[in-house]
Amino acid sequence: MSLPSLEQTKAKILVVDDQPENLHLLSDALNSEGYDVKGVVSGEMALVVATSAIPDLILLDIVMPGLNGYEVCARLRANAITQNIPIIFLSANNDAVNRIKALNAGGADYIDKPFQIDEVLLRIKNQLKLQAAQREILQFNHELERRIQERTAQLESANQELQREIIERRQVTRLLQESEEKLESILNSLEEVVWSADVATSNLLFLNPAAQKVYGRSVAELLNNPDLRLESIHPEDRDRVELSLASSLNHSNDLEYRIVQPSGEIRWVWERSRLIYDEQGIVKRRDGIICDITERKQIEEELSYEAKHDSLTNLPNRAKFLERIEQALTRSFKDQHYLFAVLFIDLDRFKIVNDSLGHLVGDKLLIKVAQILTSCCRNNDFVARLGGDEFTILLNEIQTVEDGIQIADRIQKQLESPFYLEGHTVFTSASIGIVIGNHQYQDSSAILRDADIAMYNAKSHGKARHEVFDQEMYDETRELLEIENDLRKAVLQNEFVLHYQPIVSLETNTLYGFEALLRWNHPTKGLIYPDKFIHVAEETGLIIAIGEWVLKEACHQLSAWQSQYSGAVELKISVNIASQQIKDRNFLATLDRILTNTGLSANALHIEITESTLMDYNPETISLFNQIRDRGIKFNIDDFGTGYSSLQYLNRFPISILKIDRSFIQGMLDEKENFEIVKTIITLARILKIDVIAEGVENLKQFRVLQTFNCKLGQGYLFSKPMDHQSAALLID
Ligand code: C2E
Ligand code: MG
Ligand code: MG
Q1: H or E element in which residue 392 lies
Q2: What's the predicted TM-score (pTM) here?
Q3: Which CATH entry fits the domain spanning 1-187: 3.10.20.880, 3.40.50.2300, 3.30.200.210, 3.30.1330.10?
Q4: Which one of the ligands is nearest to 580 CA?
Q5: How close is the Cα of 517 to the center of ligand 1, in Å?
Q6: What's residue 245's pLDDT?
Q7: In terms of C-beta density within 10 A (0-12 exposed, 13-18 middle, 19 or more buried), how is residue 521 classed?
Q8: What separation, in Å, do the N-terminal and C-terminal C-alpha atoms of the chain show?
Q9: What tens digit of pLDDT does each residue of 89-112 get?
Q10: Is it the case that residue 113 has pLDDT exceeding 90?
């Protein structure tokens, strides 16, 4: 801070003196010193010039006419513009009183008259210097003050900022505390375990109280022992968990595993954890959450058990069994020496037991069979119930097919003994299909299918036996499937015809009637006989539609003949009816409708049923039979002697005719036993007032013998083979 010196610039000096010579002297001296000098001769003038020109210094004479020096000084001091201008008094009264007066009046200095000009100049110089210094000090003071003020302001604002910060910090701390409290209360009330661990040491950094329930250990115990967490994992799951954690360094990790509590109790848990990184991307720790999923697991297990087990026998079901075959297959792919067998077991006539003795007995029987099957197997074999009366067994690690056969034998032997169920004695047997499983099979269902085919074969070869699957069987089954498909088309396209075989009176050698026999006119295979397709029709239910057609066609034919030929009026028509047809609710209505539509008298119609149809009886069937009988329709028992040959039903049902099976007739002459059977049946029938038709009479010898037995009716090639309706018509005429 420096101010320009008044000496250097031209300082303005006002000289006030009433004596002109003084004024000149001073003015000249000052001018020559370089000052800018104004001179006035009165106090009044001095006031005017001082306020307008504002000199830097005034040399003021004290004694003057008008306003004296003191008064001028006082006025100048009273004026704001001039108050600071330094004044040097000039006076002739150089005593101390005057000097003091002069200084009191506001003078800066005092020079005695007569003056030495040099002194005046020096005093002026000093005074100007002083003034400059004063100004400088003043300005310095101003600057200082400004700076102090500025600094104070700065400090004040900094202080305010600090205060604000302190307040803010307090608030943040409070909020932080609140949120920490909240977090803690949440963590404490959580059912889930929340943990945080050091990755390097596995030391737990945090664990919430929920851990106690899951681990069965105190939180402190777990926090103190870093290994305890891993040690608590079920030994079977431990490696998996460790491996998973080790391999999940870069992402979050989801796991399900078991925790074994010190009491031995096992809890299933689900855990999700993830690594936490700092700003530099360095792993800080691993945080995780653990949920107890024991209940969910239990439900899942129950559901999966239920989904894979049969609730009646408690055996695994089809789904589980297929799973097991799949496992066996996988093993056989790896080990070509490994052989296994699948047994397909189907109870024979189970439906009869169920229908006649009730479901309760049926269920008990299934439970018993399940027990027997299990007892016949080794520990590593696998028994399942597919449904209904179908069971399967997977025989593990067998050497040859003989092993499978042996087990099948054992099962069949065990099933021979009767069961005592709910007060009933129940006999059962099983048909068993055996298939050897090996690596050539692609999937489990193919194995099961082949075992089923073998079982089906065992059934069709007479039941209560077993068959081992082979290629031929497969081909037969394929053929059967083909027949089934073709048969469906045949029904739609009406590919059937009836042939008629005469039934002859052995007493009069006249025509008694015809048996209507079904033929299938296959579009590519030609005429197919019923033994090739009737069983398929029965198994598929197609027999209902086919049977209805046969009945309608046969009735229509005889009715037509009757209206055409007088010789046909007394003739009867026998129609074979399968047991499914009898069981069909609409059977009676169908029968009535056909008779009405064809106009055939009920008396002319004979219904041929086999013994097995009657074995299935119940009160409703008896009533149905009676209703049919009441219409005048007759019942023939077909193939008599081959089935149950039970005499009971002959009383119970309204039977008109027994047809002795042709096997007895054909063996009659060679085997004494058959001879006796035929004779006995005829005698018996006579007692029961039932007529007899001998089936399959092929030669005269048989014919004669039957005549000697007084057998009333006969049917067979001897008289005629079955023939089409045109040929049959010729016989009538
Ligand atoms: P079935 O009712 O016992 O019919 C008699 C069968 O014996 C007929 O065979 C007939 O051709 C044959 N036969 C007759 N006389 C002789 C003989 O002297 N020697 C020999 N070896 N055989 C003789 P077909 O026509 O092949 O019928 C076979 C079986 O098919 C029938 O046996 C019957 O059970 C069934 N069937 C035929 N047509 C129908 C039908 O429309 N409905 C139903 N459900 N079954 C039918
Ligand atoms: Mg018949
Ligand atoms: Mg027959």
Answers
A1: strand 390-395
A2: 0.52
A3: 3.40.50.2300
A4: 1
A5: 6
A6: 77
A7: middle
A8: 161
A9: 888 776 778 778 888 888 888 888
A10: no
